[in-house]
Amino acid sequence: TKSVCIITGASSGLGLATTKALVDSGEFHVVMACRDFLKAEKAAKSVGLPKGSYTVMHLDLASLESVRQFVKNFRSSGMPLDALVCNAAVYFPTAKEPTYSAEGFELSVATNHLGHFLLARLLLEDLEKSESKSKRLIIVGSITGNTNTLAGNVPPKANLGDCRGLSGGLNGVTSSPMIDGGAFDGAKAYKDSKVCNMLTMQEFHRRYHEKTGITFSSLYPGCIATTGLFRSHIPLFRALFPPFQKYITKGFVSEEESGKRLAQVVQDSSLSKSGVYWSWNNDSSSFENVLSEEASDEAKAKKVWELSEKLVGLA
Ligand code: NDP
């Protein structure tokens, strides 16, 4: 029988390419956890996924109610859970004003971090029950939140500061919409959310790896300059970014290649070490990458974990 993997945001880009790679391997049934049911069905058909090789289930990460409902629906399907991939993300680089999630949290941190934080915490017990020899929980990271790299040093840089905005609820009323308490900046909010993703993976590893045997990992799949992530960027940027990445920085990877990389983190026995942030060389060999000072700060990881627990109603 096949293993079961849930992938959030499997309706496009990296999530769809990973779904395709896992289904093609013949080892996985993929649960595509998506906010737009019809779009996900169309996407599955567009890459030729055979009927029965995947299941679309509704999940809107910008609503904690929806996250809880998804977990209920998944459980009532009776499927086991062998791997969870937290992949979905939004990015608002040109937004002048913040927008908010159902619970009133700034939308990029709400979607990319808080929704996934609740989802992963709730599904931990399902993963624990899996009979698979290699159960995995993966949170997709990024280089842009990593200030020890060239790309991570393009302003505005990620910086969670003392987390006073997160502590206040990121609501733009009684607190700043930004984690560090500063003025709204859409590009920075995305990078901050990615730092939270990387800190969360490591905190999961410290708290639960020994106890559960689950492998916790994060990764930077390469620059996939063609995905929907850049949909709200200005047209000139969208036209120039792919060739720039291809010919100048040489960090460009196709959606297909990035999907194969993430699928490796899900299923390869050589990538089963827990607590690792994986990256790939230009020849597509994988290596354990080093995170920036902030993205590997244990005290900050603990703080983000505890504040996030309060915001999503786990504490
Ligand atoms: P896409 O925009 O193509 O995919 C993002 C996915 O997230 C879409 O399926 C989207 O759904 C989904 N999504 C957005 N909001 C929600 C929500 N509220 N609830 C459920 N699903 C939601 O971008 P990518 O494939 O590029 O991004 C995937 C991951 O890769 C992200 O974590 C990103 O940070 C990371 N990444 C991307 C890089 C790149 O160069 N592209 C580089 C490094 C990391 P819908 O189809 O309905 O819009």
Automatic annotation (TrEMBL):
EC number per UniProt: 1.3.1.33
InterPro entries, per database record: NAD(P)-bd_dom_sf, Prochl_reduct, SDR_fam
Class of the enzyme per the UniProt entry, highest EC level: oxidoreductase
Keyword annotations from UniProtKB, A to Z: Chlorophyll biosynthesis, Chloroplast, NADP, Oxidoreductase, Photosynthesis, Plastid, Transit peptide
Catalysis performed (reactions): chlorophyllide a + NADP(+) = protochlorophyllide a + NADPH + H(+)
Major site of localization recorded for this protein: plastid
Pfam families recorded: adh_short
Single GO term (MF): protochlorophyllide reductase activity
One GO term describing the cellular component: chloroplast
Compartments (UniProt record): Plastid, Chloroplast
Annotated pathway: Porphyrin-containing compound metabolism; chlorophyll biosynthesis
Keyword Ribosomal protein in record: no
Keyword Nucleotidyltransferase found: no
Entry's Gene Ontology BP terms: chlorophyll biosynthetic process; photosynthesis
Similarity comment text for this entry: Belongs to the short-chain dehydrogenases/reductases (SDR) family. POR subfamily.
Known function: Phototransformation of protochlorophyllide (Pchlide) to chlorophyllide (Chlide).
PANTHER family hit by this protein: PROTOCHLOROPHYLLIDE REDUCTASE A, CHLOROPLASTIC, PROTOCHLOROPHYLLIDE REDUCTASE C, CHLOROPLASTIC
Entry protein name: NADPH-protochlorophyllide oxidoreductase
Provenance organism: Ceratopteris richardii (Triangle waterfern)
Origin organism lineage: Eukaryota, Viridiplantae, Streptophyta, Embryophyta, Tracheophyta
